[in-house]
Amino acid sequence: MDLTSQAINAALCSDWEKAIEINSKILKNNCASVDCLNRLGKAYLELGESKKAATMFRKVLKIDKYDPIASRNLARATAPQMPVKKTGNQQPCQKTYSRNPALDFLEEPGKTKLINLVNLAPLKILLKQKQADQVELVLKRHTVMATDLEKNYLGSLPDDIGHRLSLLIKGGNHYCALIKSVSKNSLVIFVRETCRAKKLVNTPSFIANSNDYFSFVRDELVADQPTTSEGESDDDASSAEKLHADEEAEAQ
Fold first, then answer.
1. pTM of the entire structure?
2. What's the domain range around 110?
3. 101 and 54: one domain?
4. Chain centroid, CA 48 distance in Å
5. 80/132 Cα distance (integer angstroms)
6. Cα(137)–Cα(218) distance, integer angstroms
């Protein structure tokens, strides 16, 4: 099997370290291979090494400035991360990444959700959007609004989902979002949890409408914290209790 086939197989198996190793070998013999550079950039992107990924995609665009794969992935690699409020006892995240582009819209119970935005932007803004475009989620008081990468407002998450997601983001979770569908009076986004804070390890981001989920916030998360710890705000200390109440209401 030649190196190119090995590189493709490594990507299909989500073996990104192996993919980097093989594509780097190919690149030594052909430094202008657009396909190899794109594969290498994708592997770095899946491993969370955004700067290295962006470097690969920029090399592609120097060779072919209209390459759609490099353009799309460069936008992903250079997209600003959502700011997260940090506290003195902020826990590190447990990171997860999609395995390949075909899985961008793969649903995972508790980690993904299709959301119809409300209070939509004007039609001229909506018509500029297309399926699979990246969306930024921005905290706004007690809810979350969505913008495109140019900071144009697209719409807001419904109050119940937005409130829950805002608590999880303040608790340390990270999310990414893509446009699933768009029309003149509707915009549906696909939201995926990409990073779960350690203290929320047993808390799903999204609760099913049926009784598929009950209460996933464990009492021990807050049992040893009768008072607000130093460096933590009252809002952060009560986030788990708020989520617990939300889940019980939805399960009934």
1. 0.50
2. 93-251
3. no
4. 12
5. 17
6. 27
